[in-house]
Amino acid sequence: MDSLFEAAKHCLDARDIHQKLHSTAQTAQAWCNSTLSIKSGLEPEPIGEPGRPEKPDLVMPGDVPRRRLGTQVGLVALIHAVAHIEFNAINLALDAVYRFRNLPAQYYSDWIQVAAEEACHFQLLRTRLNELDYDYGDFPAHNGLWEMAIKTAFDPMVRMALVPRVLEARGLDVTPGIIKRLLDTGEEKTVSILEIILRDEIGHVRIGSHWFKYFCKQRGLNPDQTFRDLLDRYYTGQLTGPFHYEARQQAGFTLDELKTLECIETQHNV
Predict the structure, then answer these.
(1) Tally of CB atoms within 10 A around 256
(2) Of 9, 205, 236, 251, which sits most exposed with the smallest number of CB within 10 A?
């Protein structure tokens, strides 16, 4: 397999967890070794569902059971929820590579790196679940991240605006608080994993910010206004603060964009 797009599609379609993680790592290494080409005569297939295991059962977001963090099952449910986000994030990064063509090589380097790091995050969380006598798939989960991937499959600028910079950036806001609550309960093993994830996710959102602004510049668009317009047009979910200004600014958000998020949150809460 000498095409990066074919390799990414192979990873994306893999249903077995071990196969997806292994293939993603192999693809990232092959790209680093310059053995994969970004020339392809084949157009990407219309977006469908990615490869995933039979479990977890996918339910509406409101139907995911909420459990208290102070209990063992609450801790496991939290770890499972984050693992599910990371598993989705592997597929999101792979689709960002596979779907969007004729872009700078650095774009593909960035998103292959993201896919490999998300795979590492998922494996860390799955190992922690196993240590607690659970596994990925033991709890139901929702499919909101991939649903947004489907909605944004027609345009890489829209994808960059709404997936890394809205949905995935939510982790920048909530993870520090989760870490604090876990430290209060002495759950240092899980905290160490979440600290790795938070550090890397700032970088991932920053990559999304970079390429969003790249596409805006290419099209002669104002990034701040375009971000607002795309939120108004395509995002129907709830934006919930407080927003972690420092982490989001490290990830490429401007103050105007952060004020936009605050304004939309206020409108939703009226």
Answers:
(1) 13
(2) 236
Written as six digits, the tokens of 247 are 């982490």
With residue 95 as reference, give the H or E element that holds it.
helix 72-99
63-72 burial, b at 16+ Cβ within 10 Å, e below that, comes to ebeebeeeee
- 22-39: average pLDDT: 96
Contact, 191 vs 169, CB < 8 A?
no
Binning pLDDT at 50, 70 and 90, where does residue 39 land? confident
* From 124-138, 183-197, 237-251, the region with the lowest mean pLDDT: 237-251
Which of 245 and 61 is assigned the larger pLDDT?
245
Indicate whether this model's pTM tops 0.90.
yes
Positive or negative: CA dihedral 227, 210, 238, 116 = positive
List, in order of start, the domains of the chain with CATH numbers. 70-269 (1.20.1260)
Backbone φ and ψ for 58, nearest 5 degrees, come out as -95, 125
89-109 pLDDT, tens digit per residue, is: 999 999 999 999 999 999 999
Q: Which residues contact 261 (CB under 8 A, 6 or more apart)?
A: 239, 241, 243
Q: Taking the mean position of all CA atoms in its chain, how far away is CA 259?
A: 23
Read off the amino acid at residue 214: Y
Closest residue by Cα to residue 145 from 203, 103, 217, 204: 204
pLDDT at 25 over 50: yes
